[in-house]
Amino acid sequence: MKAKALLASDETSFALVFEKGDEVMRELTAFAASRRLSAAHFTAIGALSDATLGYFDRAKKEYKKISIREQVEVLSLVGDIALEGSDPKVHAHIVLGESDGTAHAGHLIVGHVWPVLELVLTVPPAHLRRKSDPETGLALLDAC
User: Fold this and answer.
1) Domain count, the chain
2) What global pTM score does this model have?
3) What is the CATH number of the domain that holds 17?
């Protein structure tokens, strides 16, 4: 395990309220770019009209896409933002609940908000970067 101390004394927090029809990953990435964020973590709850999740297939080194084409509750959305090159990269995992209580979970690829998504984003004073992992082909957080 690797670790990097992130000082809490100079943290900034934002409350982001996504509106009907907003695409979560696009809007969050645009917000991070507009604020020139180099590090952040977030949590959110709300609801989506549809979503595409991903499950990483280790053998193929790619995400298997899981389509959700109905109204769902966002039971948990957690993630981080770090620089990949000079651009902020959002990495998010989500648990969605259907009307019968069935849950779906995975890496959030696309999600359209309906009626709202409430996200709290915390920006530490330290910078984080992602670097390519040759074994998986993924851009992983480089904490040290």
Assistant:
1) 1
2) 0.85
3) 3.30.1330.80
